Amino acid sequence: MRRPIVSEPLSIPPTLTGNKVRLRPKRLRDALNDYKWRKDSELCRLDATQPTTSSFEEYLRLIAGAPSYSSHSCHFGIETLDGKHIGNCSYFSIDDTNGDAEIGIMIGDKAYWNQSYGTDAIHTALKYIFSQTKLQRIYLKTLDWNIRAQKCFQKCGFISYGKLAREEHNFILMEIRREKTQKQT
Prior knowledge:
Aminopeptidase, nine-stranded mixed β-sheet
């Protein structure tokens, strides 16, 4: 019996349009960029991970069965308004009981750094999350030395609420609550 190459997700996440970016469901054709970004030591350092040592074929097998949406996560590709895939954004560890989830972002294409693409992606994701879900709080962790990321998240309304040490990394914990975003509009 042959297994399908790609599993169909239970539900497809919507496409969201911001001022500079479009967040759209992850696609299999994103895999080549994602793989390049997972091999980039600078990007991995910013993500507190090690570059992948797997081959592209092994990487494809790993991601082929992973849905872009489940009841506990939602993964988007970030593209420019003209359709260039420049990064990824996800919210995950969705906890319906506590009404919260973690968010993460990577602008993998360095040509788009320091131009507010990440800020727009986070704003766009938060607008969707707080208008279309029952989640009350979104949180994240960022490396304590990654001032650029911290400034991006602060522009989006996140505030620091603690610190976390994990292995050799120190993180700043940040959060935003639904009521905070409603006061901003």
